[in-house]
Amino acid sequence: MREVRIFELEHDEPAAAWRVARPSIINVVSGEIWLTVAGEHEDHWLAVGQSIELARGATAWISAGQTGARFALASGSGRAVRSALFGGAWQGWFGRRPGVV
Questions:
Q1: Which InterPro entries does the record match to this protein (predicted)?
Q2: Domains of the chain
């Protein structure tokens, strides 16, 4: 089972610190985000369509770029997380067509 959440950040919001409870993937839906992960030497700037994997137990700080940002956070089993973001799970959010599994 997986969990997928959508978050929106405004440009003027302070960076939020997160402690990652389960392996997760962040995928940028609109705008861009700045992300730094404790223990990594470089920050990450992610644009629309880009993603990053976060390991369980990681601490990450995230903030929006100049135009704000919207991103999806998926967590759960590694296979389920990947399919949630890259395998068409978005279609499931908008209802299924009759006869389609």
A1: DUF2917, RmlC_Cupin_sf
A2: 2-93 (2.60.120.10)
Q: 3-state SS string over the chain?
A: CEEEEEEEECCCCCCEEEECCCCEEEEEEEEEEEEEECCCCCCEEEECCCEEEECCCCEEEEEEEEEEEEEEEEEECHHHHHHHHHCCHHHHHCCCCCCCC
Q: Is residue 45 within 8 Å of 34, Cβ to Cβ? A: yes
Confidence of residue 70 (pLDDT cuts 50, 70, 90): very high
Distance CA(89)–CA(46), nearest Å, equals 21
Contact 70, 30 (CB under 8 A): yes
> How far is it, in rounded angstroms, from Cα 82 to Cα 72?
12
Q: How far apart are CA 11 and CA 80, in angstroms?
A: 31
